[in-house]
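Memo to structure team: turn this sequence into structure tokens by end of day. - J.P.
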Amino acid sequence: MKDNLQPATVPAASGFSMPAEWEKHEATWLAWPHSSTDWPTKLDAIRWVYGEVARKICPGEMIRLVVDNRTEVKLANRYLGMAGVDLAKVQFVFHPTNRSWVRDTGPIFVRTSAKRKTETAIVHFHFNGWAKYNDWQKDRRVPDAAAKYLGKRLFHARAKGKEFIVEGGGVEVNGKGTLLTTEECYLDEKVQVRNPGLGKEEFEQTLRNYLGVTNVLWLAGGPAGDDTHGHIDDVCRFVNANTLVLIQEADRKDPNYRPLAENWERVQDFKLEDGAKPEVVALPMPKPLYFDNYRLPATYANFYIANEAVIVPTFNDPNDRVALGILGDLFKDRPVVGVHSVDLVLGFGTLHCLTQQQPA
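Reply from structure team:
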């Protein structure tokens, strides 16, 4: 396989870049939940959560649902149908998976327009179980299956002659050239190391090559309990090209207070691709949630922007309505709705982690 510096294999050299999440989608990708170890004693409840997620998304776009086999198709049709999902808007993609976090394992799309024709392609970022788990081999092949199903070009990300590893939840773009990520996730040299020996400048250049960005901004890290070791989609999100929401912990005694305060210190120096300072809006944190004495990564930043709605995780917490109100004021073009996620977060992720947009 050629190295990533060869123009034929670099999306940016052909004018491709990653669109913002609020831009028009053709579809949202999901993967049907089947791993009981991700949601101990709660797998059936999670199927109902998927029904609610799909019900909110399908009025505005197709849903492409990755399933292991036809038994899962029957199960999914039953739960989705009972939830009120328009099953005509659901397409099944057959491919075995280890888990259901398609944000990290699924196809990451880039887009270009040339000669008045728009083309989308897929970048393969070689998922490896967040450099933590051993059972990821089926998940790694999901981008290949998606490219074959859609008939899309597939770019294999590489850096310094090796496979380059990034998860979709680890990067956030505004569609104009700026990308957000965290040092905890991708620059830590001891814990969950995705790309050993790759420095900050090389990491940034590889993101430029494969996602078409020009400006990479680094926050420090994520909240306590984050199984991914610092994914940006638990911390900070673009809501438009020049506005960020950033989580903030008000309780000085909470373990999250100091790490999240460091992110707030850093964001004061951020400059967008055009040199302007972004507007930064605070999102609160819910009270801590635990399972078996382990803290869970409950955060309102893990929302998903679909064509017809913004779906936001809620946790039976007084700050649920505060977070929904803040996001409702920021998204004027589509309704902001909550989806109960207390069961979902047992798997160490919520709504953004479950979804992956396919741009129109």
